[in-house]
Amino acid sequence: MMTLRWRALGLVYWSAVLVFAVPLGAIALTSLSDGTIVGFPIGSFSLRWYRAALADPDYRDAFALSVALAIGSAVLAVAIGTWIAIAVTMLTSFRLRMVLLAGALIPLVTPGIVHGVALRIAVRAIGLDPGPFAILLGHAIHATPYAAIMVGVRRATLPKELVDAARVLGAGPVSAFVKVVVPWLRPALWGAGGLAALTSLDDFIRSFFLGGYDPTLPVLIFGRLRSGLTPEINAVATMVLMLGCGLSVLMDWRQHMSRSSRHSASFDRTE
């Protein structure tokens, strides 16, 4: 009975993998076509469209802007999300904790199109022109709930005795936070930063509503799609996909190294 159940779960899992992987594989394959039309059969394979995309200054500028926004919004989101997570755990009033947490999670439950319009109105209200800085704020606001949740979950597992021991040994509040709390939160900080960066790279709605004359990569791809899907667009999409996969692998590696270092430290203490 258990064997049949595990086989059924395995079938469902691999079916889901195929559903997600087949369209991505089709994009990657058609980006290697030497022809000008997206479709099968591909014919001869070529890196022609990758070279064309890399030589296009519009794609290069949009990619550089998207990467800069991803890094900046990740830093802001992690900083704000960490503050929210720690504030929620330190507040003694249950109502205040719920109000702060609910306010932080509003961008997470707001429909994207509504959030984009609201952010556009907000930046205009504060006298900020649409452009890279407005997009940076929008991406950071959108990613902050993810950072707050990830850091908050990790913060909840911190043994209170560690902080108390540091304070007993003479560490002040700031020193105890830097030397005890931050190392404990480091895996969550890396994970939250990576997720925020990936969210920013993929964010079209907020980039569209808050953008100026310099488009991000998703906005530029959307504009090029008006002329039809081309192998060049698929090549750009494949490179972005590879970048996202590389960032995910890096995040997983950081998590693995963090767990290994903790296990090594625990083993050394038991010796």
Write a concise keyword list for the protein shown above.
271 residues, mainly alpha, MetI-like fold, 11 helices, globular
- The helix/strand order is HHHHHHHHHHH
Largest sheet: none
What is the CATH architecture assignment of the domain at 71-229? Orthogonal Bundle
**Share in helix:** over 70%
CATH superfamily of the domain at 71-229: MetI-like
Multimeric status of the protein: single chain
Low-confidence residue ranges: 265-270
Total strand count, please? 0
Can you tell me the CATH class of the domain at 71-229?
Mainly Alpha
Q: Helical region count?
A: 11
CATH topology of the domain at 71-229: MetI-like fold
CA-based shape = globular
What number is the mean pLDDT? 82
Structural class: mainly alpha
What Rg do the Cα atoms give?
23 Å
